[in-house]
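Protein modeling request. Please complete all fields; requests missing the sequence field cannot be processed.
Requester role: graduate student
Desired output: 3D structure, token encoding
Chains: 1
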Amino acid sequence: MSDTSRASTGADGFTADERAAMKERAAELRNEAKRAKGAAKAEAELKDVLDAIAKLADDADRALAQQLHELIVEVGPELAPRTWYGMPAYALNGKVLCFLQPASKFDTRYLTLGFNDTAQLDEGAMWPASFAVTSLGAAEKKRITELVRRAIGQ
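Delivered output (154 residues):
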């Protein structure tokens, strides 16, 4: 471990960014318990996602996250947008299926599109569950469309 990464890690072993994400998740859980059910809840959760995207400090990250959000909700209208650890996520039957991890959130080189274990992406004994995304052209849109449809089980 380098001195830089050690300095950014607290006594609990988590970085400040990781602790902030955990606090965001705790706040999300509190909000979920308070929210009404049905359409009002769905509207509030969509607003949370759009707010999370709007708050991204990096313009390129924000634009890419917005494009991915639009593509994912178009391809998977049955997915429910919500935040997950403060990041845009998309749930199926109440469980997060896929999520975006913006590069600016954890000071990484690229935005990540990740899929949880509920995603039906299985290919034998090993398969990718997260993808680096640096831009969104026709080829990337096609691949993400295929991944989201497959993850849902279409």
